[in-house]
C-alpha cells in the first residue's frame, strides 16, 4: 500500500528523468488517448471548423459540466467507493435554486448557498449510510439516486405545481451570471485585426479549470492526498495508521454532491430554467471520463490530470463528431471502443513499465 501511495501521490522529480516511472503514471495513457482523438477529429473536422474558437468551445463546454463532477467521482473511486446519485443531484440543485430564487424571491447568492447546503446534506447522508451500514456505496447511491429524483419531482409539484421552472435574469445579478452562467469571449488586437482566443466559452469551463488546480494540489501535493490513496489501497491499514476513514469518506461524498449541485447551479443560471428530469447520462459520462483518465475501478490508483484528460477525450468524441461527415449515430460506438482501448492502453503502459523495472533490477 505504501509504495502505491507514494507512486501515485508524488510530483515528478526534476532531478532526473525516469521513463519507466513516467509510463507507470495514470495520466500518461490518458494523455496519449486524448492526443490521438484530438488529431483524429482535427483532421476529419478541419474544414468544418473543429479547431475554430466556437468549435473548441463546443467540447470545452461539454467537458466542463462533466469534469466538475468527474474529479470528485475520481476521488471516490481512488478511495474504493462510487457515487451514482449525481444524476439526481444535478436536477435537484436546479430545482432548489429555481424555487428559492425564482419562486420565493430569495437573493441569488442566498439561493446558491441554500442549494449547496442541501447538496452537502445529501452527500453527508450518503457518506453516513456507507460508513455506518457497510452496504456497498453503489447500492447506497443507487437508492439515493431514485430517492432524490422522486423527492425532487414531488416537492416541485407540491410547492410550484409544475416540473419546469424559470429563473429570469431579473432574479440574478451581473456577478452571479459572470461567475456561473454566461458565455465568455476574449479577443486581442484592434477591431479590424482582432484575434479571437476563445468564443462562446461557458463560465463552467473556468470553474472546471479552478477545480483541476485545487484538486491537484489536494491529491498530489498536500498530505491529505495520501489518505485518499491509502483508503483505496487497504482500509484496515489506513485505520491502523490513524487515518479517519469514516470522516474522509463522508467528506468525499459531500464534495461529490456539492460538485454536482455546482453544475446544476451553472446550468440553471445559464439557461434561465430548471427541470426535474434525472440526468442518467451524466452518471455514465462521469464514470467513463474517470476510467479513461486512468483511475482503477479497484481503487488506490489515479491522477487528477488523467481525469481531466479523460474528460476532454470524452467531450471531443461527443462533440467532435458533429464537425465531421461521420454518422452521428456512431458516437456511442466510438465512445465504447474508446473506453475499452483506453483501459487496455493504461494497463499496457503500466504493465510494460513494471515488467521493465523488475527486469532492470534483476
Overall description:
By secondary structure, the chain is mostly helical. It is 71% helix and 6% strand. It has 15 helices and four strands. The chain has a two-stranded antiparallel ribbon. A two-stranded antiparallel sheet has the order 2-3. The longest helix is centred in the last third of the chain and has 31 residues, at 331-361. The radius of gyration is 21 Å and the shape is globular. It starts with a helix and ends with a helix.
Structural topology:
Layout lengths: L1 H8 L9 H6 L1 H19 L8 H26 L7 H18 L4 H26 L3 H24 L3 E3 L7 H7 L2 E6 L6 E8 H19 L2 H10 L1 H6 L4 H27 L1 E3 L4 H13 L11 H17 L10 H31 L1
Antiparallel strand pairs: 1-4, 2-3
Helix pairs in contact: 1-10, 3-14, 3-15, 4-9, 4-10, 4-12, 4-13, 4-14, 5-6, 5-7, 5-12, 6-7, 6-12, 8-12, 9-10, 13-14
Structural class: mainly alpha
Largest sheet: 2 strands, antiparallel
- Evaluate the radius of gyration: 21 Å
Shape: globular
Strand segment tally: 4
Mean pLDDT: 86
Could you tell me the strand content as a percent range? 5-15%
Low-confidence stretches: 1-14
List the strand order in the largest sheet: 1-4
- Listing every helix as H and every strand as E from the N terminus to the C terminus, the arrangement reads HHHHHHHEHEEHHHHEHHH
Amino acid at each position: 500500500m505504501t509504495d502505491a501511495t507514494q507512486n501515485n501521490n508524488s510530483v515528478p522529480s526534476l532531478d532526473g528523468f525516469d521513463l519507466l516511472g513516467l509510463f507507470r503514471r495514470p495520466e500518461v495513457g490518458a494523455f496519449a488517448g486524448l492526443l490521438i482523438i484530438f488529431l483524429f477529429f482535427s483532421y476529419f473536422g478541419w474544414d468544418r471548423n473543429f479547431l475554430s474558437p466556437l468549435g473548441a468551445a463546443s467540447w470545452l463546454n461539454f467537458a466542463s459540466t462533466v469534469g466538475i463532477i468527474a474529479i470528485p467521482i475520481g476521488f471516490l473511486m481512488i478511495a474504493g467507493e462510487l457515487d451514482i446519485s449525481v444524476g439526481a443531484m444535478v436536477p435537484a440543485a436546479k430545482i432548489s435554486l429555481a424555487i428559492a430564487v425564482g419562486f420565493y424571491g430569495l437573493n441569488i447568492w442566498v439561493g446558491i448557498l441554500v442549494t449547496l447546503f442541501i447538496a452537502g446534506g445529501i452527500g453527508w447522508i450518503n457518506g453516513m449510510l456507507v460508513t455506518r451500514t457497510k452496504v456497498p456505496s453503489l447500492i447506497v447511491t443507487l437508492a439515493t439516486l431514485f430517492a432524490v429524483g422522486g423527492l425532487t419531482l414531488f416537492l416541485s409539484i407540491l410547492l410550484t405545481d409544475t416540473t419546469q421552472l424559470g429563473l429570469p435574469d431579473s432574479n440574478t445579478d451581473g456577478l452571479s451570471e459572470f461567475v456561473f452562467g454566461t458565455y465568455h469571449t476574449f479577443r486581442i488586437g484592434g477591431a479590424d485585426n482582432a484575434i479571437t482566443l476563445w468564443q462562446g466559452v461557458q463560465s463552467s469551463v473556468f470553474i472546471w479549470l479552478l477545480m483541476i488546480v485545487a484538486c491537484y494540489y489536494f491529491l498530489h501535493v498536500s498530505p491529505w492526498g495520501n489518505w485518499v490513496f491509502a483508503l483505496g489501497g487497504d482500509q484496515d491499514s489506513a485505520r491502523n495508521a490513524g487515518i479517519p476513514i469514516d470522516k474522509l469518506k463522508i467528506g468525499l461524498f459531500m464534495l461529490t454532491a456539492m460538485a454536482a449541485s455546482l453544475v446544476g447551479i451553472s446550468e440553471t443560471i445559464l439557461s434561465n430554467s430548471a427541470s426535474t428530469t434525472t440526468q442518467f447520462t451524466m452518471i455514465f459520462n462521469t464514470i467513463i471520463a474517470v476510467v479513461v483518465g486512468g483511475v482503477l475501478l479497484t481503487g488506490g490508483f489515479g491522477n487528477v490530470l488523467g481525469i481531466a484528460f479523460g474528460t476532454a477525450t470524452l467531450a471531443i468524441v461527443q462533440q467532435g463528431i458533429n464537425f465531421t461527415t461521420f454518422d452521428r449515430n456512431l458516437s456511442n460506438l466510438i465512445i465504447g471502443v474508446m473506453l475499452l482501448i483506453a483501459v487496455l492502453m493504461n494497463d499496457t503502459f503500466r504493465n510494460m513499465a513494471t515488467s521493465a523495472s523488475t527486469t532492470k533490477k534483476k
